[in-house]
């Protein structure tokens, strides 16, 4: 299992993934592990490992599973506070995707998600558009640069 560096809701993906939620959603859809595995393109044993908490799906796989189960990816995560990483994950964007679109470096964007960097307020509408939210949603989630910075 590869450790993820993406942070979602203040925790790493592998700390937020809910094997209990995955099983519950799969069962609520009337799917067997074997059927879900076939639809997702994974081995049944892999789905079993996900559901038993022995393995964590990679982010792209998590999105495929969510699509097959017809749920938002956040339904397969433990509840947590909304943050930039959650919004980015809902749009299936990588940190590099967002950084490129904003014209900033990926490490700098990573610091922005961790609230260690400040965003130029002029980029707020563009970031909101990428994440498909209103700019005012982001105001509490990002630290904005002030005029004297």
TrEMBL record:
Protein name from the UniProt record: Helix-turn-helix domain-containing protein
Keywords: DNA-binding
Signal peptide: none
Membrane-spanning residues: none
Record-linked InterPro entries: Cro/C1-type_HTH, Lambda_DNA-bd_dom_sf
Keyword set includes Coiled coil: no
Species whose genome carries this gene: Haloechinothrix salitolerans
Domain HTH cro/C1-type: residue ranges: 22-76, 84-138
Lineage of producing organism: Bacteria, Bacillati, Actinomycetota, Actinomycetes, Pseudonocardiales
One Pfam family hit: HTH_3
PANTHER family in the record: HTH-TYPE TRANSCRIPTIONAL REGULATOR XRE, TRACRIPTIONAL REGULATORY PROTEIN-RELATED-RELATED
Superkingdom, taxonomy of origin: Bacteria
Alphabetized Gene3D superfamilies for the sequence: lambda repressor-like DNA-binding domains
């Amino acid at each position: 299992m590869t450790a993820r560096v993406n942070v979602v809701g203040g925790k790493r993906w592998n700390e937020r993934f809910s094997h209990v939620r995955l099983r519950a959603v799969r069962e609520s859809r009337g799917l067997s592990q074997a059927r879900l595995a076939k639809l997702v393109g994974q081995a049944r044993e892999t789905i079993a490992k996900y559901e038993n908490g022995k393995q964590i799906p990679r982010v792209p796989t998590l999105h495929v599973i969510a699509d097959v189960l017809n749920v938002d990816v956040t339904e397969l995560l433990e509840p947590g506070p909304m943050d930039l990483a959650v919004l980015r994950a809902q749009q299936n964007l990588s940190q590099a995707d967002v950084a490129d679109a904003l014209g900033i470096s990926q490490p700098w964007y990573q610091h922005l998600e961790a609230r260690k960097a400040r965003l130029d307020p002029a980029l707020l509408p563009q970031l909101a558009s990428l994440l498909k939210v209103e700019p005012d949603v982001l105001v509490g989630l990002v630290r904005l640069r002030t005029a004297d910075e």
